[in-house]
Amino acid sequence: MATIYDVAKLAGVSPATVSRVFNGTSVSTAKVTAVRHAAEQLNFTPNRAARSLRRQSSEVIALIIPDIENPYFTEMARGVEDVASEAGYSVVLCNSDSQLEKESTYLRIAIAENMSGVILAAASDRTNLDEILATGRPVVAVDRSTEQEIDGVVMANRDAGRMATEHLLASHRRIAYIGGPEHIETSSDRADGWRLAHRSAGIEAPLDLLRFSSFRVDGGRDAMEQLLALPEPPDAVVAGNNLIGVGAIQVLTERGLTPPKVGVAVIGSLPFTTLSPSAVTVVRLPARHMGVTAAQMLLERIRGDQQPARTVVLRNEVQAASAPA
Question: Is residue 51 very low, low, confident or very high in pLDDT (cuts 50, 70, 90)?
Answer without folding.
Answer: very low
